[in-house]
Amino acid sequence: MVLQKGHPLFANFGGIHHIYANEKALEGYKNGSFPDGSVIVFDLLEAIEKDNAITEGNRKVTGVMYKNSSVFNETGGWVFGAYKNLSGEKLDLDWKAQCFSCHAARKEHDYVFSSYRE
Ligand code: HEC
Does residue 2's CB lie within 6 angstroms of at least one atom of ligand 1? Predict the structure, then answer.
């Protein structure tokens, strides 16, 4: 998905993003309930518009959701984290306020916004 200027999420999520899911998370996408051990990755890259094409630029941020209900039961089993790059440099954030607060609106979909495409 490409979020462009004018979209309410542009400030934080403007760019091209890809979503990756492990096998367990795929089960969740298919049946609506994500098992413990599910990992979903939101990889956000700059969107560069040039010569009538939009291509991927530098990585902006990589967000991760991991489910472990015995530890994170207050937030539907999920913990959120965000990384500056793939070498694991973590962003210092209050994930309950800065991530879960918005995802909480998707309670009936187990806090996940995106859906699976066949
Ligand atoms: C203002 C609302 C909002 C906030 C805040 C937010 N997200 Fe999301 N997030 C979304 C939306 C909307 C999507 C779906 C994007 C799509 O469908 O491609 C999403 C998708 C995701 C996904 C892929 C799984 C899913 O739910 O579709 C992950 C992982 C994720 N976000 C992590 C994070 C992390 C980590 C943070 C905090 C740093 C965060 N999010 C903060 C709205 C938000």
Answer: no
Could you list the pLDDT tens digit for every one of the 118 residues in the chain?
888 889 988 888 899 999 999 999 999 999 999 999 999 999 999 999 999 999 999 999 999 999 999 999 999 999 999 998 888 889 999 999 999 999 999 999 999 999 999 8
Ligand 1 centroid to residue 103 C-alpha, Å: 7
60 to 33, 42, 56: CA distances (angstroms)? 29, 11, 11
96-117 burial: b if 16+ Cβ within 10 Å, else e: eeebbeebeeeeebbbbeeeee
Tell me if 9 CB under 6 Å of ligand 1: yes
Distance in Å from the first CA to the final CA of the chain: 16
CA angle 25, 29, 35 (to 5 degrees): 40
102 CB less than 6 Å from ligand 1? yes
